[in-house]
Amino acid sequence: MGHRDGFEKPGSRAENREEIERAILNAAEEVFAQKGFGGATMQAIADACHLPKANLHYYFSSKETLYRRVVERIFTIWLEAADSFETSATPDVALRRYITRKMQLSREHRYGSKVWANEVMHGAPIIHDYLETSLRRWTETRIAVIRRWSAEGAIHDVDPRWLLYMIWSTTQHYADFAHQIETLNQGPLSDAQWVSATETVCQIILRGIGLNGDGLDGVAPL
Amino acid sequence: MGHRDGFEKPGSRAENREEIERAILNAAEEVFAQKGFGGATMQAIADACHLPKANLHYYFSSKETLYRRVVERIFTIWLEAADSFETSATPDVALRRYITRKMQLSREHRYGSKVWANEVMHGAPIIHDYLETSLRRWTETRIAVIRRWSAEGAIHDVDPRWLLYMIWSTTQHYADFAHQIETLNQGPLSDAQWVSATETVCQIILRGIGLNGDGLDGVAPL
DNA sequence: GTCTATACCCAGATAGAC
DNA sequence: GTCTATCTGGGTATAGAC
């Protein structure tokens, strides 16, 4: 007992390590989102998670490694969310779910969305391979589904790519351009405004491709 | 005559200065777009316009001054483009023109759009006042117009804000996320693809708010 | 007006005590 | 594992020759 280094409960050290890493990643996500990779400093990230700067280098070998981990974590969340675009559902259900989920992500993961946008805008130097593998695969399966819907006459004849880009951009805009939106709104969006915005995006897109968009034809309320 | 410093044609020096400044601004726009403010270096900008680094400081007192000038220039182009949203026209014409113009800007001013997006994503530290003055004024006049259209029954009842954000995001996406789009497309978009994307965006949005969107009801082909 | 050489500072990374 | 002190590279900005 006393000040000599004692025993730890098995696993507690590893758990603690994970916890600290998560804290650093969260802080890093916010700082990278607000300042960009070049503008962010290890000092600022360290301050944000109340750790000495040197500790960050103990857990992550370099600034770039840390950044890469942040981006990878976001990409994973993104891909999982993408599953809400169920390829088995009807167009109404699939699109409504997907748009709603993406709006929710924009609200709950604003910083993640910004880091992702930043990364892509700068030419995706870190995650370029993900774009060419995971994202491309995901996109191609959805394109095929949308094509089928068109062929069956369930929706108008649209190029699936432009439709997907439209969904991505409109939903992510609420995270990436949150500052502009909140400035024009003179404050953060209320719960009601989020619902209203989500509903509007759903309706315009669904009606735009020939569905009635009222959300009353087979979609269970979420 | 000879090597002693001679006369200049009136205005030629000033013209030259403007030319050099424009060259620096163009180079800076590209570098800032690709690297962000923090990631960009004066050296990289100097290289891009084939000038020694010190000359940049002769024409622009600091990196931040240069950046500010770049952002202001973009904002001006943006606002001018905004005039294509003519408040006097019918919804079909006004929206179609505005969307088309914004798509064109995304294609022709990719870097400018990226710098703007970057600036807003990082909380608009430089142009925050523009958001609260010029942009807010512009937005409010358009909101009023869209409200009127709704009231007259010309378009469905939508919150004008969400509609505007939708137009901004979908069109700017083609500039800001160009890298992602081109990766999925395995190359830059062709002329035909730009036309097709523009047409799709117009149709989905116009139909989405209750217009027929076929572009054949009063809009002269541009 | 133009450019080379340099001052100065700050940020990423590490050494080494605890 | 944690933290202080320090090294080092690179970036902004400027001094001063031409």
Please explain how this structure is put together.
Two copies of one chain form a homodimer. In chain A, helix 5 (91-108) packs antiparallel against helix 10 (191-208) and helix 6 packs across helix 8 (160-176). By secondary structure, chain A is mostly helical. Chain A is globular, with a radius of gyration of 21 Å. The termini of chain A are far apart. Chain A has a domain at 70-209: Tetracycline Repressor, domain 2 (Orthogonal Bundle), CATH 1.10.357.10. Chain A contains ten helices and no strands. Chain A binds a DNA duplex (18 and 18 nucleotides) through helix 3.
Runs of chain A with pLDDT <50, length 5+? 1-11, 218-222
Largest sheet: number of strands, sense, barrel closure of chain A: none
What is the fold named in CATH at topology level of the domain at 70-209 in chain A?
A: Tetracycline Repressor, domain 2
Overall 3D geometry of chain A? globular
- The structure class of chain A reads mainly alpha
Distance between the termini of chain A: 55 Å
**What is the subunit arrangement here?**
homodimer
Q: Please bin the fraction of helical residues of chain A.
A: over 70%
InterPro entries (chains A, B): Homeodomain-like_sf, HTH-type_TetR-like_transc_reg, HTH_TetR, Tet_transcr_reg_TetR-rel_C_sf, Tscrpt_reg_YcdC_C
GO molecular function, one term (chains A, B): DNA binding
Keywords (chains A, B): DNA-binding
DNA-binding region (chains A, B): 41-60
